[in-house]
Structure formats: structure tokens, C-alpha cells
Amino acid sequence: MKFKILVLTALFSFPASAQDFQAADHIDIKTCSIGGGSSVASCVEEQVSSCRVQANQRADGYFAERACSDVAFEQADGLLNAFYGRAMQTAEEYERGQGLALGTMHSKYLRDSQRAWIDVRDATCELHVTFPDYNSGRDSVVAECKARVTMRRIEELQFEIGEYLD
Question: Which superkingdom heads the taxonomic lineage of this protein's source (predicted)?
């Protein structure tokens, strides 16, 4: 019961502006064009940085800033999931067309590649946070890193297998 009271007290002690700040209004990761002129990682960093500036002007720092990184990662992850779904559907259609058992060739390699990549992404972002930013907004730094790395993964998959998806 004491824990619930503490949580509710903390929630209601935030300024109204902090509760009204919506990071999703300041982040639109899909505008970071895959294969475009600028780096998708730079685009993600710019959007998160701009969102954080808005968060600090209109809301209570850390929680609003953290929301910026979280929203960036959620959007990037959604884009990757959509791309991966299309790629998996294409791989399975090819396997069916070739009379292969599903999950024995293209879709297996795609799934194995994605699972290995997730491990690399997570380890890379944990490593990133252990250097200069350890314990200073750690979760926010990891989420922003995951957004950048996820957008680069979409770019990588588009380069490697995108021609087969159109």
C-alpha cells in the first residue's frame, strides 16, 4: 500500500506540462529515409535531440526526455517489424513455390539472421552505455541507441534483400 501511495504521489507531483508532453508529437522516424542522402542514425539523433529540447522547454526533464528515446525506438522497431514481416512473407512464398518445407531455407536464414542481429544490437547498445553515460539516463541512452541501430538494420536488409520484395 505504501508503494502505491509513493507512486501516486510521484505521478501527481509532476507539473501538468510534464504530463501533457507527448514525445510522439516530436518524433517521426519514418521520415529518416532509408538509403537517402543523410545517415539514418544521424536523422534519429537529430529527432531525439530536438524532442529533448522541446521536452526541457515544456516539461519535467528526465521523464519527458526518456519518452523521446522510447518513442524513437518504438517507431523504429515498428518499421523494422513491418519490413521483416514483408521479407518473411516473400521468403515463405518462395519456399512454397519451390515445394520446400516452410522454414527450411530463406525464411530460416532470415529468422536466424534477425535473432542474431537482435543479440548484437542489444549488446552494442549496452556497451555504448557503459562508457561515458553509465548511470546517467542509462535507459534513455540505450533506447536511442536501439532506435539508431534498428534503422540501420532496415537499411542493411533493404540493401541485401530489398530487390526481392518489390
Answer: Bacteria
